[in-house]
């Protein structure tokens, strides 16, 4: 009898009871807008920013309406405007090129390695064509950040990090999002903390922080922030920076705060699940796994493996066979994007580019979510199913 998996790949954990209680408080007093405060009250949004600044060691933090909004605000604050080229990973999620396109700027895609990170040799070649690098740590894979920061310094690139999949992760002890000018995080349901929608921005630069706060729609109420620069910094800018409303509200902040304090514990739980899958799939015929260097303190909320140079029919068949046994897998090689698997060639708002190394990687890239509602035993079962199906396809070919 072959085994089947019955778990749900999109079911996240419940919000902690503390978060539910804090949310009920906000609902009962009704002051959901971040600047709607009672006398002497510190709002949940401002407190969340203070908590997250402390967690990442950043001087300033701003909570916003979504991760994608945060990317746009970061780009705009660094002075990106219409027609400007912005370097970014060819392997990323659509909100990244979308945030660039929303400013009338042009995504300039950089190749992807077999370890699923930005190709630093290609970045070096393209660096002269842009002023900003929006580095996306897609699916939690972190490039050699010493090399990235050195390259950015040498080429005069401003580094913005997209940490949608690396909240709580680090490179050689430096928190992800703290290597460049601005770190951007998402608090959307499928990321590392869950408020449905939401985003966080961190920076040590007072001018950038003030610009992002003004952009987010602070209505001259920026003095109600707790992780913001002093008001003199705003006075210089407040009439120059447009209001592009994208604030977070107190309800979301209330449910996020207790999740932040559990982040380290959750990271460990995710990584134990990742290691169980990795151990189960290791050595399956024709399969390679991204190398994870010692310096990479990752948080594995998803799992990827590669079947390089397989014919597309074989890759599609693996997806179908795994799916029939309850293992819901995404494949980045499909002709047409499915759910979250669109790739750079599908983004017609960006100028077409030839990226043969990325094409080869994406054509063989499989992706699974690892919600914390799965146990380690679930992950071992998923790995057994995948290995059996991969071996069955290999035997048939032989
Ligand atoms: C989710 C995500 C974002 C931000 O997305 P929102 O849905 O706008 O919060 C940015 N980059 C990557 C790689 C993502 O996966």
From TrEMBL:
**Modified sites of kind N6-(pyridoxal phosphate)lysine:** 191
**Catalytic positions?**
191
**A Gene Ontology molecular-function term?**
pyridoxal phosphate binding
Q: Which UniProt keywords apply?
A: Pyridoxal phosphate
Biological process GO terms, please? polysaccharide biosynthetic process
Source taxon at top rank: Bacteria
Q: Which family does it belong to?
A: Belongs to the DegT/DnrJ/EryC1 family.
Checking PANTHER family in the record gives: DTDP-4-AMINO-4,6-DIDEOXYGALACTOSE TRANSAMINASE, TRANSAMINASE
Name of this protein: dTDP-4-amino-4,6-dideoxygalactose transaminase
Q: Which organism is it from?
A: Roseivivax halotolerans
Q: What is the lineage of its organism?
A: Bacteria, Pseudomonadati, Pseudomonadota, Alphaproteobacteria, Rhodobacterales
């Amino acid at each position: 009898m072959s085994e089947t998996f019955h778990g749900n790949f999109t079911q996240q954990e419940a919000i902690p009871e503390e978060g539910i209680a804090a949310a009920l408080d906000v609902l009962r007093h009704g002051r959901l807008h971040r600047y709607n405060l009672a006398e002497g009250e510190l709002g949940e949004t401002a407190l969340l920013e203070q908590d997250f600044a402390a967690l990442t060691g950043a001087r300033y933090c701003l909570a916003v309406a979504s991760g994608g909004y945060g990317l746009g605000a970061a780009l705009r604050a660094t002075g990106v405007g219409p027609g400007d080229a912005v370097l970014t990973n060819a392997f990323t999620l659509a909100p990244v090129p979308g945030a660039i396109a929303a400013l009338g700027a042009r995504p300039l895609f950089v190749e992807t390695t077999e370890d699923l990170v930005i190709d630093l040799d290609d970045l070096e070649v393209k660096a002269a064509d842009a002023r900003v690098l929006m580095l996306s740590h897609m699916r939690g894979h972190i490039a050699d950040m010493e090399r990235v920061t050195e390259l950015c310094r040498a080429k005069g690139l401003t580094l913005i990090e997209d940490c949608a999949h690396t909240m709580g992760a680090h490179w050689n002890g430096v928190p992800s999002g703290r290597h460049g000018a601005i770190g951007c995080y998402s608090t959307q349901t499928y990321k590392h903390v869950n408020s449905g929608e939401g985003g966080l921005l961190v920076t040590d630069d007072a001018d950038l922080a003030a610009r992002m706060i003004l952009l987010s729609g602070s209505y001259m109420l920026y003095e109600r922030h707790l992780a913001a620069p002093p008001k003199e910094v705003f006075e210089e800018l407040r009439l120059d920076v447009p209001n592009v409303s994208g604030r977070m509200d107190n309800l979301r902040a209330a449910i996020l705060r207790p999740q932040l304090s559990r982040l380290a514990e959750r990271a460990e739980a995710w990584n134990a699940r990742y290691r169980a899958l990795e151990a189960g799939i290791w050595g399956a015929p024709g399969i390679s796994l991204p190398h994870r260097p010692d310096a990479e303190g990752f948080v594995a909320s998803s799992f990827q493996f590669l079947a390089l140079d397989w014919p597309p029919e074989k890759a599609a068949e693996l997806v179908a066979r795994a799916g029939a046994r309850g293992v819901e897998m995404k494949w980045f090689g499909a002709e047409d994007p499915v759910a979250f698997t669109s790739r750079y060639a599908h983004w017609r708002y960006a100028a077409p580019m030839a990226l043969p190394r990325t094409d080869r990687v994406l054509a063989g890239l499989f992706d699974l979510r690892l919600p914390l509602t799965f146990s380690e035993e679930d992950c071992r079962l998923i790995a057994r199913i995948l290995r059996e199906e991969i071996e069955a396809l290999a035997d048939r070919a032989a």
